[in-house]
Amino acid sequence: MSQKSEIVYFDQPGPQNTDELFGVVGARLKQGDVKHVAVATTSGRTALRAAELIGSSGVQIAAIAFQSEYWPEHGKPDEGVAAKAKQLGVRFIPDQPKAAYWHEVSGESADTLRKFGQGIKVALEVILMAVETGLVPAGAKTIGIGGSSRGADAAVVATAAGPDNIGAFFVHEILAKPLDKGKS
């Protein structure tokens, strides 16, 4: 037995793909077997957009932003934007426990994941961090959403696991990704 599904390929990475990506994710959520979405967000805007576009589908949205020790370098979520997202049911990554995975994905591991595109790398990482910080239960089929810079341009469906049980992590589907890595 086999299944056919579509993968959406964006011409270029970037925030211009965000709304279309959430349309793809929303269509996939209609199948009913995914109840968790982990979305990368720095300012909180991508998490808010997720809530606006797919929040009514009955899924739990976990916003994975940088934890406070990274704010000086990467910035923190905008308080007003995050508050709006939380009002729509989004749960943001807590500051504790620390997501050790931030420290562990580097070198060859990160470079290997980037071969699929920065957004795919991030989509996988946010699922791992969501489990590690208690936002998504291990073993749950989860959609991970990442981006190449701002916004969202990549999504996967995976069985969620934390870094302590990486062998249980499994990618079932790639929903969307850029065809090109963009400017280097």
Give a written overview of the molecule:
The protein has 184 residues and is of the alpha/beta class. The chain has a single domain, classed as Pyruvate Kinase, Chain: A, domain 1. It is built from 7 helices and 7 strands, in the order βαβαβααβαααβββ. It has a 7-stranded mixed sheet with strand order 1-7-6-5-2-3-4. Strand 2 (36-40), helix 2 and strand 3 (60-64) form a beta-alpha-beta unit. Helix 1 crosses helix 2 (45-54) and helix 2 (45-54) runs parallel beside helix 4 (79-87).
User: Overall 3D geometry?
Assistant: globular
CATH architecture annotation: 3-Layer(aba) Sandwich
CATH superfamily: Pyruvate kinase, C-terminal domain
Mean pLDDT: 90
How many domains in all? Answer: 1
Question: How helix-rich are the residues, as a percent range?
Answer: 25-40%
Beginning-to-end CA distance, first to last residue? 41 Å
Number of strands: 7
Strand order of the largest sheet: 1-7-6-5-2-3-4
- Report strand %: 15-25%
* The CATH top-level class label: Alpha Beta
Spell the H/E element sequence.
Answer: EHEHEHHEHHHEEE
What is the CATH topology assignment? Pyruvate Kinase, Chain: A, domain 1
Overall SS class: alpha/beta
Largest sheet, described in full? 7 strands, mixed
**Low-confidence segments:** none
User: Number of DSSP helices?
Assistant: 7
